[in-house]
Amino acid sequence: MSSFKSYGKVDEHEQMVLEARRKTRKRITIVGLSSIVLAGVVFAAVFGIVSTTGDTSQGANDVHSVNNSLKAVCDVTLYKDSCYSSLGSVVESGQVRPEELFMLSMRVALSQVSKAAEYFGDHDHEVFKGLTDSRTKEALKNCRELLGLALDHLNSSLSSGENSSLLDVFEDLQTWLSAAGTYQHTCIEGFENENKALKATVVSYLKNSTQFTSNSLAIITWIHKAATTLNLRRLLSSPHQNEAPEWLHSKERKLFLTEDLKKKADIVVAKDGSGKYKKISDALKHVPNMSHKRTVIYVKRGIYYENVRLEKTKWNVMIIGDGMTSTIVSGSRNFVDGTPTFSTATFAVFGRNFIARDMGFRNTAGPLKHQAVALMTSADQAVYYRCHIDAYQDTLYAHSNRQFYRECNIYVYMRSRLESFVNPSGWLPWTGNSAPDTIFYAEFQNVGPGASTKNRVKWKGLRTITSKQATKFTIKDFLQGDRWISASGAPFKSDL
Ligand SMILES: *[C@@H]1O[C@H](CO)[C@@H](O)[C@H](O)[C@H]1NC(C)=O
Ligand SMILES: *[C@@H]1O[C@H](CO)[C@@H](O)[C@H](O)[C@H]1NC(C)=O
Ligand SMILES: *[C@@H]1O[C@H](CO)[C@@H](O)[C@H](O)[C@H]1NC(C)=O
Ligand SMILES: *[C@@H]1O[C@H](CO)[C@@H](O)[C@H](O)[C@H]1NC(C)=O
Ligand SMILES: *[C@@H]1O[C@H](CO)[C@@H](O)[C@H](O)[C@H]1NC(C)=O
């Protein structure tokens, strides 16, 4: 998801940024389209050469095949020069298959993010030394955290790619690489309102790492597309067996569906002192780190005035409340009073495989305080079931990775009920009067008084989609939800 800004505040600089982004997106679209057309042809050629040089007659042919793979692979990226310069110097001889180039590209990305993290981690760095503004200092702190998350996601992608066939873990790779890119862009966005020189420095520190992350994502997307088109799955199988993670054992899954979770909870939090802890944050401190076993926390009714962070080391946590209007977490951090958007969330989730049920999250800062997030999720495979999320600007910050919401009070677009409070024009431009033609917005088979699309804005980017296109956005295809959502007990329909 892109950045969140105060609507209606437009200046020239912003317009320029927007224009630049628009151009970049256009470029991405064009690259995307041309790569689809070429993918099959080029990929076949590359594989043809690789397999004919598989025996002992090598020599010049090898170099040729290296050049071919490299060209094929770098051609699909947005930053071709970076691609050639980084991979070309490493790949000097021998046969290199596209998937090996992909792994190499991820290693380069990892090392560049690691290097960037060093710059930001250097507290004595002259650029960051004289900072006094609290929001800028917080933005810098956020960058350190965000780059840490980017490293984790690249690292997970690498181990996943090493241990499994790339095609078997394609959706994970795509999700995590995309998240790694989002984290770096969020770091940059934290400096959007600050002085230009500082922002330029931040952008330059992240130039290599963002480019290599983007390239890696483009390469794996291309490999997947080409291999699927040509049915080359067999060729891409790795010698290692597939060790795709089992998110939840079926026995455990059954338990969650049948037992009264509140009675089974590992930890009880209650404001009135009838539980082990009075604050959710205190309970979370005692959740084991990186646990593969689920920890269930029951939070009894009451309003909990605290800002909660589910840290990235807290895996497989489930929080269950007494109802979306009975157990409420409440905070009021906001942008106007000096907190970057990323840090305003009342409830922020970084730990993977999180589940919340029957809970309310709110930010009470009010509309005058601009960005003030109630719930932010930056973790992979998070489920929210019967939750209420309440605030003004940026109520829900669905930051990165795969997330599922069911029977929650916020917003929705597909096969959903839209009430009469939905403005008939449906969509607002992000800023100014620019009606973006490069966005992809779609409404599909919604019902209710607000569902008619007759008077919607006439933007190129707002599309009428077919069932076939809608299939891409189903739980099965878009979220790979069959693997992980049932653990929450939330009902869902996996395809259209
Ligand atoms: C491979 O590419 C490099 C530069 O891109 C070129 O100098 C070299 O001659 C090429 N080798 C072969 C065998 O095509
Ligand atoms: C990547 O993960 C491995 C363990 O899987 C760890 O040893 C290594 O330090 C990690 N690297 C980074 C840069 O986080
Ligand atoms: C991946 O494989 C390496 C050895 O190739 C092993 O050391 C590592 O533990 C494996 N990681 C996972 C997540 O299975
Ligand atoms: C970015 O990568 C290039 C080589 O591709 C290198 O010359 C340059 O020093 C790198 N920049 C930073 C900031 O690390
Ligand atoms: C989890 O890890 C953090 C830091 O890595 C440590 O401070 C904390 O004590 C650990 N918590 C538990 C419950 O092991």
Automatic annotation (TrEMBL):
Pathway(s) this gene product operates in, as recorded in its UniProt entry: Glycan metabolism; pectin degradation; 2-dehydro-3-deoxy-D-gluconate from pectin: step 1/5
Keyword Secreted part of the UniProt annotation: yes
Similarity section: In the N-terminal section; belongs to the PMEI family.
Domain Pectinesterase inhibitor: 65-219
Keyword Phosphoprotein: no
Protein name stated in the entry: Pectinesterase inhibitor domain-containing protein
Entry superkingdom: Eukaryota
Organism, scientific name: Flemingia macrophylla
Transmembrane segments: 28-50
